[in-house]
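To the team - fe (ii) ion complex, inputs and output below.
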Amino acid sequence: MLIAQITDMHIRPAGKMAYKVVDTEALLRAAVSSILALPKKPDIVLGTGDLTDCGLIEEYELLRDILQPLPMPVYLVPGNHDRRDTLRQVFGGEGYLPPDGDYLHYTIEDQRLRLIGLDSIVPGKGHGEMDAPRLAWLKARLDEQPERPTLIFMHHPPFPTGLQHMDSINCRNSDALAALLSQYKSIERVVCGHHHRSINIRWAGTVGSVAPSVAHQIVLDLNPHDDATFTMEPPGYHLHLWQPDIGIINHTVVIGQYPGPYPFLLDPDYPAFADKDAAPATHKH
Ligand SMILES: [Fe+2]
Ligand SMILES: [Fe+2]
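Output:
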């Protein structure tokens, strides 16, 4: 099973740039084209929050239009730039979001890997939270099928990343979430957005990861600082390849057109030039 994870699209109304700089519509259209051009097509696509920049109806309608060419199911969870009511209003008809209730949590049961989408947002705040009602909901879901391989997706990382100014607005009450998740051997990975970079960490008896944004990236500065700035380095997304006997293998796709592919034309001085086991010769690494 192959899962594409796109995140932090920050879609604005048509023609408007995010932060006066980022053409988020064009960048998400490029991400969709990249997914459609993959040699192995993903079975599903996850969108892990900050789907829009301001949670406006017209932003979600444009988002729906941009995602429309994807032939596989797309599952969305909200981020701090989203609004539950407008997200529900535009995407509620797709059938996976709960039609009522306080949170946009849900499970996807029709894949071999079970998927649990978590709503980590705190309206009006940049940080997220897994408070007691959300932890209780998650525990009830995990106890339904405690042995089944499960992937959790949410916006705010509940683990540290070394990006101090972003970690100050990550998912709060994360110790309680870690204590819960560490009781289950079946959690393959917790995949997140919010930090606009590709990050992996061992955490809570599983693996935590953050996908890069399909739009702008947070400046990579691991020194403590409060200067939240972004760059237009090449955007990307994550591919999670899951196999029952292996687990999840994580790849980062860099979006864009680059020279190549080229064959490996080996120099006779290469130490394994005569290695007959590695054929064809031009593809030796
Ligand atoms: Fe974001
Ligand atoms: Fe965010």
